[in-house]
Amino acid sequence: MSQQARIDVISGVFGRPPRDLQFPKNSAGKQKVISEIFGSNVFGIKEMGERLPKPVFKTFCSQLKGGQTLDKITADAIAHAAKVWALDHNATHFTHWFQPQNDTTAEKHDSFLSLKTSSVGGLREVHALETFSGSELLQSEPDASSFPSGGMRTTFEARGYTVWDTKSPMFLQEGPHGTMILYIPSVFISYNGEALDEKSVLLRSSSVISKVALEILHMIEPADGEDHGLTFCLDVPRTKEIFTTLGTEQEYFLIDRGLYALRPDLKTCGRTLIGGLPARHQQLEDHYFGKIPTRVLAAMSEVELELAKLGVPIKTRHNEVAPCQFEAAPIFEEAMLAVDHNLLTMDIMHRVAHKYKLKCLFHEKPFKGVNGSGKHCNWSISTDLGDNLLSPSASPETNYRFLIFLVAVLKGVLDHGDLLRAGVASASNDHRLGAQEAPPGIISVFLGSELNEVLNAIEEGRPVNKTLAGTETTHMRIEGTTLDLKIATLPKLNRDMTDRNRTSPFAFTGNKFEFRAVGSKQSPSFPVTILNSAVASALLEIKEDLYKQMGSKTVATDEDMLTVIRKYISLTKNVRFEGDNYSEEWVQEAAKRGLPNIVKSPDAFKRILSPHNSEMLTRLGVFTQTELESRYHILAEKYTKEIIIEAQTLWGLLIQHVLPAAFSYRRELSESATNLKQLSLNAVPEVKWLEQLAPIATAIQESAKKLDTLLAEQQPIQEAEVAAEHACSKIAPAIEEARNLTDQLERIVADKYWPLPKYHEMFSTL
Predict the structure, then answer these.
(1) b vs e for 455-471, b when ≥16 Cβ sit within 10 Å of the residue's Cβ?
(2) pLDDT tens by residue, 628-649
(3) Fewer CB within 10 Å of terminal CB in the chain, N or C?
(4) What are the chain's domains?
């Protein structure tokens, strides 16, 4: 690898022809709008309703609502309809698509091809045909021993099962040469029924929170026709189903694929292990919401087209803060489907980027010194009637339904904030949390001044301070206020109820909570599972208190609810914080409040097995104790392996690329100085540069040796906790130490000797 390779790639970027993509057209020859394309590759409820016999479709709908299990006759009918639909779209294979515990998805393709033997003229003849049975639809058998299991499965215990998640529709994705593949979203379990995936526990947690939320709603809302004079109740049908909703803002980087291919650290680790910042990066604050580069915009458009076919509702695209960083945001959906769609989004981004000679980077911190990437999970609770239970309405201080669910979230975060921190912990996210506009390891909640005033007023039994809302009305107005811009041609601006606190890891943003600490490359399943569970546990406590307060009443009164709300406002004050989460003052204040500050992942992983967390998760039935212990070991081992891979990769870079570049440059300087001295000319500049170069090169040699020694010490450590601690406390700092030295060297070695693409080259070739 040499500087010439870098030059060739950069030169090639500007002579590369654009990719030609034709959007689908309708019968009139006009380009279809997104709504006409949306869901065209999805075997959803509408498609099933049109293709299935009415009794079969009715049975399936009943099964979806939990009314009955899926019988063989129904499964066979659905499988046949799905096969016919898939073959009509040129499908050749099907696959059970699942989410193992490694932040990726997995799939094993099986052909629709089958063989049938018949007798013709007394002779046996074999015919080929396409078949797809109900049993093939419902489950498949992948090799469970080859996926992370945390010790639940051994190499010789290979059997595992994927089972169709009936609430997530089947869909088609492109295969090779114009063919298609039928994808069946599935859960992944062991032979003994333990969850080996991310989705099983998410489904369990969703079921738990839905059940208790519905029970509370029926306690505080009268049944149809009843009138208990409740302030917030409307004359509407009674809620029958509650579900959590999710919108995942996905941040990512794009760089030229040619330059990516010249960076062994990016290819192996997903982040640069060496590399100094260029003179210009994000300090001018001109990239955020700036003009999207042409090649990137073309790729984004194709991504959105492919996702529209899959029914993924991408709404927003824009430049993010760091150079080469971007974001895509969807419309909210039911959480289980939103997770599937987020993983599909990442997959499509990755595949489409290749077509544009780009590389999509989902690592939380691929470039040191500029903003990292997150996956902001916008979470709420909704009903089958279309009500958002976290919508404050015009008068939040008298909307007791909203307040009950609000304090439940606060109580869940207060009690299990350390578990939420564990849910976002990873070796890669450690580089992001607490830096460059990413939230710190202290999990607190931001509500905004208006909602804080509402809660304070209720707790203190006084009227709300109306001046906070900027209005003279009787109630606090959730719509916020208006701003007069003093420009006649511009309308008055409607101001939101509260400003945004970008430093908060868990912020209320109008009618939802934004969990901002989630890492960009991780599946949102585990963090949302923990959030669902923590809030469900708090709702169970609130339900018990409501029961006691109600006595013999069938429906809670306003006073009953207000008493319980006031109690939980008081209990949860410590988790509410409205200030700068980055400040040192907050670190000190959080310690006084008893909020844990978990800086490193190995410490966070331990919280999964803490008695107060494990008891809650097992009591709710979201995890078994065995599954929790398994997950702890998987997370700890994954963390350790990632650090080891980084150390080994960096050692190779130092020995095979960095030091040879330094030696070559030193040889040139030495020869130049020798020649100058032989000619009786001044060689002081060369000598001084050599004197500056030599100690850094020597220090890098020592760093490489240190990494080698630490890796040798790591190898015999078997216990997951000890291994993770050693990797965290010994190897990770050594990696950073070597990087700092190498970045110094990069600044003084002549460019023609530096073999790796530099930051300024990767940042400026889109």
Answers:
(1) bebbeeeeebeeebbee
(2) 999 999 999 999 999 999 999 9
(3) N
(4) 34-140+161-186 (no CATH), 198-238+390-621 (no CATH), 250-373 (3.30.590.10), 638-763 (1.20.120.1560)
